[in-house]
Amino acid sequence: MLKLKLLTGQGLSWKVRLGQAIFLASLFLAWHLASALESSPFFPGPRLVLSTLLDGLFHSGWMVPHFLTTLLEVFVGYVWAVILGLSLGYLLGTNSLLFRAYEGPLLSLYAIPKVVLYPLFLAAFKLGSNAVIAFGAFHGLFPIAIYTWTAIRSMNPVHLKVARSLGLTSFDILRWVAIPATLPGIVVGLRLGFNLTLLGVILGEMFASRSGLGFLLMSFGGAYVPSRILAVVLCVFFVALVINGLLLTLERRVKSPFAMKGSRDVQGDAYS
């Protein structure tokens, strides 16, 4: 029984959590030692940064409105990234003509550093939250779309043909075949999409915003207040850590009952 648990990965969760805890503790220990050796006000240690973070969130509250602004912008941007990414991924995953025509251009657009396109977002949405949200959504939709169309086109077309031969309706095929087979890949895209949406929102706030954690980073960077700069960075890190932990848990729980193998082009034709 123990051997079976080890082979299937069961019973190892505590080891994974222990490894994660050791990794985080090692980072903070290295940070503490480096700041102690440097002993410079320009490189504060973790104790000062944590106290600054707690002060900003719970005592004086100077970080709270900016934190809430960033959370709202990330949430709205991520919702748009999910809607647009899933829609685009579905279209290219189920239509071979669209896939052949647009896969290359979309991958090329994905490879471009998005920050060079930010002036276009400012011109379209003006200065404010709308531009930041749109920029975040633009960052996040690409991995969601790519993983969605890859998951769809990697599904074995035999499963779809068997389902049709059994007389299943389109809704039944979607519910019992397509979604279980593609969901694991899509969830990976959703996790990566959140990370890039968060990145896009922070960048947008840094360059053209009057509120948000990105705005604080630029403000404290200009005034060079290291403890507050690192406190904001630590806040962003904790947000990303929590959300990624939830999405990773979902990712591990979602398992496909099918072997996701098969020709991409043949599958696309079979699905359409």
UniProtKB/TrEMBL annotation:
Q: Name one GO biological process term.
A: transmembrane transport
Give the record's keywords alphabetically. Cell membrane, Membrane, Transmembrane, Transmembrane helix, Transport
- Which parts pass through the membrane? 67-92, 104-125, 131-152, 173-192, 229-250
Give all residue intervals belonging to the ABC transmembrane type-1 domain. 67-247
Query: Which cellular compartments is it found in?
Result: Cell membrane
**GO CC field:** plasma membrane
State the signal peptide span.
Answer: none
Q: Report membrane topology.
A: Multi-pass membrane protein
In which broad location class does this protein mainly occur, judging by the first location in its UniProt entry?
membrane
Superkingdom of origin organism: Bacteria
Q: Which Pfam families match?
A: BPD_transp_1 (PF00528)
| PROSITE patterns on file | ABC_TM1 (PS50928)
Q: Which family does it belong to?
A: Belongs to the binding-protein-dependent transport system permease family.
Protein name, as recorded: Nitrate ABC transporter permease
Q: Which organism is it from?
A: Thermus scotoductus
